[in-house]
Design goal:
It contains 18 helices and 14 strands. The chain is an alpha+beta fold. It has one domain: 2-Layer Sandwich (Creatine Kinase, Chain A, domain 2), CATH 3.30.590. Strands 1, 2, 3, 4, 5, 11 and 12 form a 7-stranded antiparallel beta sheet that branches. The radius of gyration is 23 Å and the shape is globular. Belongs to the glutamate--cysteine ligase type 1 family. Type 1 subfamily. Its EC number is 6.3.2.2.
Length: 532
């Protein structure tokens, strides 16, 4: 254990400070495709009964019109978050008619590109901006990639905790933004540790060892054939996070520097403002219709595909990067988790408990700067784990030497253990964090217990990835429909849906100015410190 971690643990283990650990927030965003009863992509518009995808705070769509996204409020305890996520699922199933939610990160059989509808948010300038951005994504990456679903885990520690740590480490609040900067740089340091160790999450929670042939759209690959419609790798944990999932040439050179918030923001802004020749050749309009928001490396900063992002809640009309510049980092968003097909809501409570301990470890442990060479090593460790994570012979690179993944993984779990104990002391229902660590330890000792191994075993017995996805989706849909929400809860969701539709209508009524001007204003508002 590093000196820094020891010091910080002792500080938080103090009677007076222990309660701070219970005051951080976490929230989940779960993506899931709407499918028909055969497991095929739903071709219907976003159900009006679920409200407006533009303005609803908890039920929206991601890329494809059929890709739902459920967003929980932020809570102090992950069990509260999962209860809320469960309620959203029950509500959705009650309103989906004979459609259901797909239970796997990778889509089943996909129709042709033309047949995949891009999400629609109405005719307002804001709604069109979201739609045209997605048209740009379709143009740049193809639509199949926009049908992949994941779990995003949002996590923060309370500002009072950062204040306490800053004071104990001699950071004084004389400079106007000293505290805000300390908190921002602490989250950036946490992101660096996440880069070092996130391969562990892919081993423990990856659940996409196979995919349907239709997903690849004829692209070249090195996968093995399991059956007519299914390709796989024998030791893969998460093909979703491999170069077969999210990948693209324009972004391949883009490595936002995570050695300071400033360098992170600067590199993203430069990507948003740097033209990319192949996109420029296509232009922003075709036959008078907008087809992408810009011809730059990124249309907007959210286009940057990353396993983790620093975040700050944005104000109306503000861009994510402006929010970070103006008010600093508020929380982080973990983006590399596969949907767990064995869990109705896509993630288990034990996984959440482990993530809380893992992320606390990343936040408090020492985190030196990452050189470009280090960055390549971390990326390679991650890439090896997603494609060969369960191979007993797999090694990862640490400090210039190769060591078995299992050795390093067991060592990491032991380094996280003191943080799990600390969280359990603060928690009133026993040793929930410690026992989630024991569950993960068992998976390291026996790869057959990992979700990816279990998924592959099920796919082999059914002979098809699509058949497995369909079976899990039917099971989960039935369980949600068998225990609907209480009428009072349902009424609350109905009211949210109604209000969101009213809000969208209001936005459409009060729109002024042309879409062209709206895009121009949005594109020019990228510079930091430029408060409109």
């Amino acid at each position: 254990m590093s000196n820094q971690l020891q010091r910080r643990l002792a500080l938080l283990d103090d009677e007076d400070h222990r309660a701070l650990l219970g005051q951080g927030l976490r929230g989940i965003e779960r993506e899931t495709l709407r499918v028909d009863r055969h497991g095929h992509l739903a071709r219907t518009p976003h159900p009006r009964a679920l409200g407006s995808a533009l303005t609803h705070a908890q039920i929206t769509t991601d890329y494809a019109e059929a890709l739902l996204e459920f967003i929980t409020p932020a809570e102090h305890d992950i069990s509260t978050v999962l209860n809320h996520l469960d309620a959203i699922h029950r509500y959705a199933h009650a309103r989906l008619g004979d459609e259901m939610l797909w239970s796997v990160s990778m889509p089943g059989e996909l129709p042709s590109e033309e047949a995949i509808e891009i999400a629609w948010y109405g005719k307002s300038n804001l709604g069109m901006l979201k739609h045209v951005y997605r048209r740009g994504l379709a143009l740049r990456y193809g639509k199949a990639m926009q049908c992949i679903a994941g779990i995003h885990y949002n996590y923060s520690l309370p500002e009072r905790l950062w204040r306490l740590v800053a004071a104990s480490e001699g950071i004084v609040e004389e400079r106007r933004h000293a505290l805000r900067d300390f908190q921002s740089e602490s989250y950036i340091a946490m992101i660096r540790n996440f880069r070092r160790y996130s391969w562990l999450l892919m081993y423990l929670f990856g659940a996409t060892p196979a995919l349907t042939t239709s997903f690849l759209r004829g692209r070249p690959h090195q996968l093995e054939t399991l059956s007519d419609d299914t390709l796989y790798l024998p030791y893969a944990t998460s093909l979703r996070m491999s170069d077969l999932g999210y990948q693209n040439d324009a972004q391949s050179g883009l490595r936002p520097h995570e050695n300071s918030l400033e360098s992170y923001v600067t590199s993203l802004m430069s990507a948003v403002n740097t033209p990319y020749e192949p996109y420029a050749a296509v232009g922003t309009r075709k036959d008078g219709e907008w087809i992408q928001l810009s011809t730059n490396v990124l249309q907007i900063e959210n286009e940057y595909y990353s396993t983790i992002r620093p975040k700050r809640v944005i104000r109306t009309g503000e861009r994510p990067v402006q929010a970070l510049c103006n008010r600093g980092v508020q929380y982080i968003e973990v983006r590399c988790l596969d949907v767990d097909p064995f869990e109705p809501v896509g993630i288990s409570l034990e996984t959440g408990r482990f993530l809380d301990a893992f992320l606390l470890f990343c936040a408090l442990e020492e985190s030196p700067p990452i050189s470009p060479e280090d960055g390549q090593v971390h990326a390679r460790n991650f890439a090896r784990t997603v494609k060969q994570g369960r191979d007993p012979a797999l090694t990862l690179t640490r400090d210039g030497a190769e060591l078995p993944l299992t050795d390093w993984a067991l060592e990491l779990v032991e380094r996280i253990r003191p943080l799990a104990r600390l969280l359990d002391q603060e928690h009133n229902d026993g040793d929930v964090h410690t026992s989630s660590l024991d569950l993960q330890q068992a998976k390291i000792a026996n790869p057959a217990l990992t979700p990816s191994a279990r998924v592959l075993e099920e796919i082999r017995s059914l002979g098809s990835a699509a058949a497995f996805g369909l079976r899990q989706s039917q099971l989960h849909a039935a369980s949600f429909r068998d225990s609907p929400l209480m009428p009072a809860e349902e009424a609350l969701f109905d009211e949210m849906a109604r209000k969101s539709l009213e809000e969208q209508a209001q936005i459409e009524r009060s729109d002024s100015g042309s879409f062209d001007d709206f895009v121009a204003a949005y594109n020019s508002s990228t510079l930091c410190g430029n408060h409109h």
